[in-house]
Amino acid sequence: MVQVAIMGYGTIGSGVAEILEKNRDAVAAAVGEEVVLKYVLDLREFPGSPVEDKLIHEFHIIEEDPEIDVVVETMGGLNPSYPFVKASLLAGKHVATSNKALVAAYGTELLAIAREKGVNFFFEASVGGGIPIIRPLYRCLSGEKIEEITGILNGTTNYILTKMDQEGASFEDALKEAQELGYAERNPEADIEGYDSCRKIAILTAMATGHEVNFEDIYTEGITKITDVDFQYAERLGASIKLFGSSRMSGDEVHAWVAPVMIGRSHPLYAVSDVFNGILVKGNMLGVSMFYGSGAGKLPTASAVVADIIEAVQNKHANVKIGWDEKRLAIADMGSASWRYFVRIAGDKEQKEKAENIFGHVEMMDTGDAEEFAILTDEMRETDFQKRAAAFGEDRIRQRIRAEL
Ligand code: HSE
């Protein structure tokens, strides 16, 4: 029998408890012995809940109990999750976490402790919720040189952008609806400003390259400036706008960024709508592979945590080679990346001529609004675009969105 403790009985933690109970036979069959939930650590009481008799309020009980083999961290945030996870690993316990903030901030150190102690630190649920992506990277794709990972990594923003695209909703209305449905937090900043996607692409980039990635080095732009008017133009182009987290490896150069991107219908991620996530991985031998599914939510995310528990128990006495080393990856400057640019400009005929002179060959379009038009430039480096935009006059530029069309 293997005994497990869950730290944090919120949405994901209660999902893990539920799966361990409902899928008890499947889990036992996978590991060859029974997996039993012994403790649930939470500050709150849960009278009448199925884990009422397992509730504890003090971490040291888990840390000091030699019967606990696996600790699940589903508290979120960094404090006290970081000291609790670190102490669990140092006490020789395996850890499975869904906490992307923890993995992005302290993954390097926690992976090193796990290696030293001969235990495992797993975090499948930290990226893409229930979508298998961490394990495919270190198992199925381990013989590949990863050239690109591009994902729609945040369900809340994907829901908002889908509403704007398909129903012509404004950003504010779509956000309100996402909050009413419980997708977006009351304070939705981490989702809509791209911070959540940033941590996720940092983890994926570190997995793909084998080196530590400082998420603060990743250029991050959210969706708060995207408007319904942008989607009117996108429709004319047969395109949509998605929030991408991406890393692209070319020789020694690695670009990693989070930004809204205009993409056409033929893009593999175009059809990833609503709260779903999709992750495209390009390997040098494999070519493109796509991972799609529920990137958030109680049971999908908890399912990924349970898979980590199973792998930890299957490797009870060995550290599975996973993750990255302490050498920090240099992320190339965003200015050296190249795109086409969709640009909305205030003005009429005279400004159109000026736009052609300054931006070079462009596709022109309008929505019937006499006061503005839009251009789609040819591909150019970001620094080059910035110089041209400055020469044009930033005050007339109402919007610019990178485009992969
Ligand atoms: N807030 C996140 C999202 C939850 O909307 O995708 C999953 O990480």
Mind explaining what this structure looks like?
The protein is of the alpha/beta class. Helices cover 37% and strands 27% of the residues. The protein has 14 helices and 19 strands. It has helices at 11-22, 24-31, 59-63, 81-90, 100-117, 134-138, 155-167, 171-180, 189-192, 195-209, 228-236, 298-314, 349-359, 382-392; strands spanning 2-7, 35-41, 55-56, 68-73, 94-97, 121-122, 146-152, 211-212, 219-220, 239-250, 253-264, 276-283, 287-294, 325-328, 338-346, 362-365, 372-377, 380-381, 397-404. Strands 7, 9, 10, 11, 12, 13, 15, 16, 17, 18 and 19 form an 11-stranded mixed beta sheet that branches. Strands 3-2-1-4-5-6 form a 6-stranded parallel beta sheet, sandwiched between helices. β5, α5 and β6 (121-122) form a beta-alpha-beta unit. The longest helix is centred in the first third of the chain and has 18 residues, at 100-117. The protein is elongated, with a radius of gyration of 23 Å. The N and C termini lie far apart (55 Å). The model has no long low-confidence stretch (mean pLDDT 97). Bound molecules: L-homoserine. Residues 129, 154-156, 183, 191, 196, 295-296 line the site of L-homoserine.
